[in-house]
Amino acid sequence: MKYYVITVDDGSKWGVPAETIADNRAKYYAKIDSDTTYQEEFDAMMHWFDTGDFEFADWAKNNMDFSDVKDKAVKLSSALQPTIDWDECWMNGEYEYKIVE
């Protein structure tokens, strides 16, 4: 499974399936741009994920909120501190691209 991983205020790491974010962007562009298809946009996003391209994170941070993905988020490591500002962490926290098998 490929995850877009954020580190939140308490030090824990949360992964959101890359496909969830790619699906969001692909649906958006397939709807507004008649010169592209869902699959082309989805494949582009997954390519950006696989190559660590900033475009993937840029879409997630600037076009989605944590509330858009929270039902898909998986805790990948434990917390160090007790409080979390989810939206702040989503937009400005550390992130990484990760494949978990």
Write the layout of secondary structure elements.
Blueprint (H helix, E strand, L loop, with lengths): L1 E6 L5 E5 H15 L5 H13 L3 H10 L10 E4 L8 H7 L2 E5 L2
How would you portray this structure in words?
This protein is of the alpha+beta class and 101 residues long. It has one domain (2-99). The chain has four helices and four strands. It has helices at 18-32, 38-50, 54-63, 86-92, and strands at 2-7, 13-17, 74-77, 95-99. A four-stranded antiparallel β-sheet has the order 3-2-1-4. Strand 1 (2-7) and strand 2 form a beta hairpin. Helix 1 (18-32) packs antiparallel against helix 2 (38-50) and helix 2 (38-50) packs across helix 3.
**Count of strand segments:** 4
> Low-confidence stretches at least 5 residues in length (pLDDT < 50)?
none
In helices, the fraction of residues equals 40-55%
Shape: elongated
* Alpha carbon gap, first and last residue: 6 Å
Radius of gyration: 14 Å
Number of domain modules? 1
Report the biggest beta sheet as strand number plus sense, adding barrel if it closes: 4 strands, antiparallel
Strand content: 15-25%
List the helices and strands in order: EEHHHEHE
pLDDT averaged residue by residue: 92
Global structural class: alpha+beta
Number of helices: 4
Q: State the strand order across the main sheet.
A: 3-2-1-4
